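Please check this today:
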Amino acid sequence: MEAEENILGKEKIRKLIIKFSIPSIISLLVNSLYNIVDQIFIGWGVGYLGNGSTNVVFPLVITCLAFALMFGDGTSAFLSLKLGEKKEKEAEKGVASGIISAIIISIIVLIISLALLPQLLNIFGCTDALRGYALDYGYIIAIGLPFMIIGTTLNSIIRADGTPKFAMTSMVLGAILNIILDPVFIFIFHMGVKGAAIATILSQFLTFIMNILYIKRFKSIKLNKENFKFDLKMAYRIATLGISSFITQISFVFVMSVENNLLGKYGANSKFGAEIPITVLGIVMKINQILNSMIIGLAAGSQPILGYNYGAGQYDRVKKTLKIVLSTSLVISSIAFILFQTIPDKLILIFGSGDEKYMEFACLAFRTYLMLCIFNGIQIPSGIFFQAIGKSVKSAILSISRQVVLLIPAMLVLGQIFGLYGVLYSGPVADGLAFLIAITLLFFEIKNLGKKKITSQALIDDTSTDNILTRQTVITISREYGSGGRYIARLIADKLGIKFYDKDFIKLLAEETGFSEEYIEEHEQKRAAMENLENGTFNGLSSSDELFVKESELMQKIAQKESCVIVGRCADFILKDNKNVLKVFVYSNEEDKIERAIKFYGLNKEKAKKEIKRIDKQRSNHYKYYTGRDWKEYENYDLCINSDLMGVEKSAELICNVVTAKNLELVTNK
């Protein structure tokens, strides 16, 4: 990792972007093409009604993909975190739980899809003319959904295991098989949409088999029968880690469902009819997804570069990386814009021919709905940029703004006013507003980059370390903001003559990671509620996750070599398997916390109340995310103490007495 960090901080930025972005772009493009290939052959072999039927089945496929990515990305994050903590056994249990969860959800989805497919198609906007094709296609696709869910889940885990090439190969080979089988079943066997569906599930089965066989070849862990026991708590933990990926995909399902229903409703009252708009706009969105895949892949490849250099305080490299990514993305989106505006008729013909009205609406849809697609070159990389530098709220805002907050309301309102054309107008309206939000947030972030200085609240270690303990021991202090817990920890270290880790821990961590002390102070022990709504990462651990892993490694090293007091940082959880650890939680009533915040941090009463609530919420979210446990749950600790009962000095003395009573004898001549 150290060598890679040096590369991220020193290697030429263009070379780094190429190295990290190309695999991401290829994977995303293959995934996008997977969804398009069927439509190309169906368009030529069946006609545009066949294509329309795949568009109304597509939300079902994306729903399954959402579950697959939730368990896949969630398990991947869990695996990476536990390997970083050197907890292979927990990693094995987590991976097994993720796989079992994917199997269970795939069976549930299969049963629901086969039993309720007609009703689901109605929700997704199916018309009477499309129904026969959609049922033929949908029932067969439903049979393959378990293969897709399990195969995709394993694909994410395989990447986290350190074999991204295998994961990409299994996906690419599946896509190639789909391309080969589609014309065979459609044109040779004349099976229409049924043939396309069979080709799809056979290709998914190939990827599924390859990934299943990989289970025995995991490099970082070894799975056995004992691991494969369903653990509901573990499954919930995995799902929580992958919830951002689920939300990203499921929002697309809502968009497609609303869009199909509105196109069917308003299209029926136009000269184009209901089926042409549903078919065409589905194709338009999938072609646009190819553009977005390239931009997302490029920006995702820049994540580790941006994250590392931002953390290291190398802001010139951050700005240069962002400049290259934005300029390249704008070139891609500009080329796409020119193609969409000048040759929309040629693009739609890739998916088969149609009558005059079909071609007219296709040109109208490309030129109107994607009128401002050029702005994707700014909006998409901006969201990933904020994710890379740990600005979770801004990243979440940009992630959900275009799809959920802007596009769906725009379709509903403009559709009501302008009918079918209003649905098309919603595209540029959402793109334009999302761009304005992105460029505003980006402008102020770049303007203030590196200017904000964090006022450290950590206490510097200047204890004597004149150890009076006969056995090595570690005391972990978790505390509410304003409870005096940090000062209590310092007093304990003074009384016992052992090392105190707060500010010094930050210094050591900065040396280990290459991150600046200011960055560590700003990002450690904090997790905003909206951070779980970010897009999933594409290149392993995020900067926040990397920071936690490095903290865990450093904490284990310290705990093995010396007696000490460690403040916060999930130390009670990280060291829970270590012997001679006393885990303490310090709390206080609100009035006393407010009084301390006013006295020691210079806050007024109202500001103190808000700050206490905010920081405790961040600490709780951080603890929950990385441990899967509740921060204030008494079972996590050996001792929970109200600092108001006796005051901080007496509280520290009480804890010292507990330490000595825990088979830790004082040296008699001290």
The mean pLDDT is 88. DSSP finds 24 helices and five strands in the chain.
